[in-house]
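Progress report, Aim 2. The chain analyzed during this reporting quarter is listed below.
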Amino acid sequence: MRHMSQQALWSGRFAGGMAESTLDFTTSLETDSALAFFDVMGSLAHVRMLKKCQIIPEDDADRIIEGLKTIVAEMENGEFKLDFSLEDIHTNVEFRLTELIGPAGGKLHTGRSRNDQVATDYRMYLRESVLEIVSSIDALIDVMVKIAQDHGNTILPGFTHMQHAQPVTVAQHYLAYAFKLSRDADRFMDAYNRMNKCPLGAAALAGTTYPIDRKMTAKALGFNGPTENSLDSVSDRDFVSEIAFAASQTQIHLSGLSEELIYWSSQEFGFVEMDDKYTTGSSIMPQKKNPDITELIRGRTGSVIGTLMNMLVMQKGLPLSYNRDLQEDKKALMDSLDCLLQCVNIMCPVLSTIRFNTDRMRAAVENGFINATDLADYLVVKGIPFREAHGIVGAAVRYCIDTDKKLEDLSLEEFGKFSDCIGEDVYNCITVDMCVERRNSLGGTSSASTDEQILTVIEQKMVRYENVRQENQLLEACWNELLE
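Predicted structure tokens for the chain:
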């Protein structure tokens, strides 16, 4: 049972207090307590600005600063206690400040509103979450690059419609996922850059009459600058939707990768075996080795996508400016980002310890006429239009099926039944190894091409690494300066 030991900051308008059921329904404390550190940092930047602009007395500002520093120390030591009779973390911080320094603590809220305060805190929280996720994605890309470097000549079937299509290498296959994840990381950084503007000073919706310096607070908190429109600053959560989309797209890529690993580790495929540390057994069937981690990654994708739908529908039709609906922008996305981070982090050891059954992959390539396109390309080089070549090869494949042969096993006499353009040199074009190595176009599956792709994806990752490093250093410097 909660007890209403404190009044809400807005209680002056009301003759009576909230019912406990109202507090229970409206409280956000369990969720927004995650914003506690950022709330204090925002308050430190705000009060330093109020002091510089001479909006509150210097002595009061100094007492507020020392009180806020004490609260940070209490948070770090685990001594800061949440009062669940208060509706949110912001009220908890302000009441604790007043307990520490007296009435001067009430001057902290001068020139700002809960609306711009929350929007600022949340952006600061999401900045650090995004930087952590991008670093984890790049660590997974490193694992995929290592696989590509180790398996540049390991050939397996490439699939379309889950049917054998053309031979590719394991390097090409995992570089495809590396580039997908590279774009995912870039999407997070793009969203980071767009949300990296400071709403503090927009106040409730229309700005403030106090002579505040919004550029000062934005710089102190590591933002690129202040937001441009006060109504937009407090009402919009497009940065939330954008991050939710980036998370969904990344999780979808992880889910597709998980699906393949589940297939590939089955007896029917037998392409890979996952390490015992990252699989589980059956309670009744002793022989089982289940790919539970990849199944859970696939299963949790639904909740991450659901968060995106949640954010979009929540914002649909909201009039300007702030509405309490926007309180619901935090828990789902926080949980979603935690889920994504866990999935990315566990996929790293899953992939780094996987064993590839190269013999099984090679045997699979030898079946299914996976070199049929190369025979058609050979005929095109001999001057036959591709559509005609397509029909010739189709007839040859039908002949092989009927005679239980492979294309590369046909004699020149047998090839001659389908086209007199086929000569001895055809055998240099339709072996599986040549099918791979002759695909040396930009982005292709040849070893030379995949070597170039490895360099490209590493370069993309290093650019992000430097950006993340600089942003982390900037934010750390901002927190240290505010706490001086």
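The first strand starts at residue 155 and ends at 160. DSSP finds 18 helices and four strands in the chain. These observations will guide the mutagenesis work planned for the next reporting period.
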